[in-house]
Each structure stands twice: as C-alpha cells, then as structure tokens.
Amino acid sequence: MNQNEIEMQEFRRRSHRLRLWGGLRQQWKLLGLFEIDQQHQFYSLTCVMKEGLSAAVQNTIDNPPPDELSEEDFKLEVTQIHKGFRMQTFAGPVFASLRRSLGLSEKDYQSSLSCDGCYLQFITNSKSKADFFLTNDKRFFFLKTQSEREVKFLLSNLRIYIEHFEQYPHSLLVKFLGVHRIKVPHRRKKYFIVMQSVFYPDERIDTRYDIKGCEVSRWTDPAPQGSQVIVVLKDINFEGQYITLAQQRSWLVRQVEIDTAFLERLNVLDYSLLLAHQPLHLDERSQSLSFATLIMRTTKSWSFSTSRRMTGRSVNTDTRSSLAGVPSVPAADPEEGAALLVPDTVNDYGTERRRATGSPGTPESPDPGLWQFRAQNRRLLPCFRNPLHVIDGPEQRYFVGIIDILTVYGFKKRLEHLWKSLRHPGRTFSTVSPPAYSRRLCQWVEAHTK
C-alpha cells in the first residue's frame, strides 16, 4: 500500500469519526462534559498533547527554575522532538516558578496532565470557536487551543502579569500554568495554554455562571430538572440573586477593581467573571477557627508571595505609597496579623527575620507600608484544594475567577462596537472600550454582592 492510499484511509477514518461525533453533538444539544475516547475527533490530538506535556514537565523536573529569573527565562523556547510531532514550550522556567508559588509540585502537575484517563471536552454555549479541554481529574482548566496572536500577546505581557500576582497574591485573574505549541507534519500547528481550573473541585457545585456585566445575548436556558448536563448560565439568569459574603464582600469588590484596572491597562475586554457556588455543610458554617487553624490559613494565604523569586525584585517605596487608602480586608489588621505570624519566618520581600510578637515599625517586623501591602491581599483562606479562587460566605462557598483575558481592543473590536451600537441602541452589550468594560463589571459586582 502506497503513501497516498494510507493517507486516504486515514482521511476516511477521520471523516467517519467526525460524522459520528457530529451526530452525538446534535443528540446532546452541543452542551456538556464528554470524555475524549477513541471515537472522538480530538482523540489523536489529546494523546499527542498528553505525551508532549509529560515530557515538557519532566524537563522542568530535571532542570528546576532558578530562584531569580532572568530576562532570558521569559524569552526561552524549548523544542522537544517526539515520534510524529514536535512540542515547543515557551518561558518554561517562568511558568514553573508560578506553579511553585501556587504550592503545586511538578510531579503532581505532571501526573494530572498525563494521567491514564482520557481528557475531557467541555462543550458550552460560548461563541468562542476555541476547543475547551480539561484534564481527567478536572483540575486544569482548560487545555484550550489558542490563536497565535493571543499566545504572543500573553508572552509579551508575561512579566507584568507575573508582577501583578506579586503585588496581589490573591488576584482573581486566571492562573496560566504553561504555554505550548504542537506541530504534526502536514498539519497546522496548534497553540494551547494550560490554566488552573476555577471550578475545582466541582463535586458539589450546583450552579455556574459566566458574567460580563451586560444584557445582550446574556441569557441561557437552564438544564432540565434532573439533567446531568452542565450548563453555564449568564448575567440575566443571575438577576434577583446576590453573592452573600458578609465580611468578605469588601475584599471581593476591591480585588475586582484592582484586577479589571490591570486588564484596562492591557487594553483588553470581553473577559468574564466565572462564578459558581455550593452550599456549606452545617459543620463548615458553625466551625470556630482555632489559633492553630488561623496560623495555618494565614501562612497558606501568603504562600503566593514567595513569587518574589520570579523576578528577584522587592516592593519599592512607590509601590507601597500607591497602596495608601486601600481598604483593609477581614482579619487583616496589622497588629492582629502580627500575632498570627509563625515565629522566626523570613519576610517574603527580603527584610530581616521577625518575631511573632513584633509590631509595625519595629526592627523585628515589616514597616507600616509593607504591612499595608500585605493587608490588601491577606485573607483567611479555607482549608481547600483550590483556595485562591474560593471565598466562603455565611451559607455558601463561592468559586470566583476572571478568565478570557487575552482579547485586545483593536480595529476589529472597534468595528464590532460600532455595529452593535447601531443594532442594539440603548442596550448594554459585551464589546465596549476597556475602561467602560472594567467599570461596568465592577458595578455589577458592587450591585450583586452583600
């Protein structure tokens, strides 16, 4: 059998799988979470991704990132040659450092990305044409195919993205964990970005929302009663409801303001606030925090601050002064925070060792400016597998994160804004300028929290 006959047979097999998958998608109404098994059109692609990702992470295990990253680390491109494809990894040491700051070991990351179980595909009612994949344990959201333009935009802004997390360790922005490209001979190259799941673990999540702060095309028909299909609802579905956080409300409102201001500076729009909730168990509602638990939670909530090692820079006076007037968060009073510090810990930004009994302004403790810096982003995080995207209210546990942050307000989006202005006069729609988009999402959060 010659090469042409082999390729023709492969083409027929792929066509058959596509027809099969198309029928299934029609049957399942294009919504839900499905295993990418051998009959799935993306099975071959995900097998290649799984093999390539495992090797890429192994390279990081064998060559750990330095404590202080250089400019070359941000520009590094590593190509690994496999049987039948090439895998390229961008800025590997930078993303490895970010994973480390999240408390994610490379072995755990590798195990999740290359587990025996098939990847999953999440088919939503989103207008995006990207392919949404999840690891089998649903821990990493999404192995999502990206355009080259989006990838280049992320890499060109990677340093300031990392710096944002250094300043605000509990930022709600989605955590990008790796950027890769796969090239199979005679096929188009595929870019994809690995991200941390906002909705993890999802065992008891009962409702999910994608919020943009507008009204046009922002309604989704809920799943039928008793259906196992996962439907992501939208803004209008949420009307009449509130995110009830009590003391945590001020922190959430302020953090959304900070994160959207950052995205405004990047000139991006069309991002979404992902929101889900699950009821707290009775013992979770009534549990009182012991002193030991407070120490553990506070220490964990600061673990992200070790990302100082990513860029090797400390917080300067200008940064501290720019935080003046920022409201404190629950349990973030400087003196209270001092009492909760683990004795003899090293300050994350290079100051001298301090004692748990130190007070602001003394040689044994950070100066008042640094206390204020810490207070802005210090919460008592739940003892949970995904604490950075979790906020506990009095009765509900909320999963919150800002995703899809790579759409630039360029010429095409400006034309789209003009067209929608003519088509939907007097109504709010997604495509507006970054300042307007940021302001509107902040107003939505302000109006829908209590």
TrEMBL record:
Pfam family name, one: PIP5K
SMART domains in UniProt: PIPKc
GO MF annotation terms: 1-phosphatidylinositol-4-phosphate 5-kinase activity; ATP binding
Protein keywords: ATP-binding, Kinase, Nucleotide-binding, Transferase
Comp. bias intervals (Polar residues): 307-322
This protein's record includes keyword Glycoprotein: no
BP GO terms, sorted: phosphatidylinositol phosphate biosynthetic process
Gene3D superfamilies: 2-Layer Sandwich, Phosphatidylinositol Phosphate Kinase II Beta
PIPK domain ranges (all copies): 26-449
UniProt-annotated stretches for the region Disordered: 307-330, 350-369
Origin superkingdom: Eukaryota
A single Gene Ontology CC term: plasma membrane
UniProt protein name: PIPK domain-containing protein
Organism: Megalops atlanticus (Tarpon)
Record lineage: Eukaryota, Metazoa, Chordata, Craniata, Vertebrata
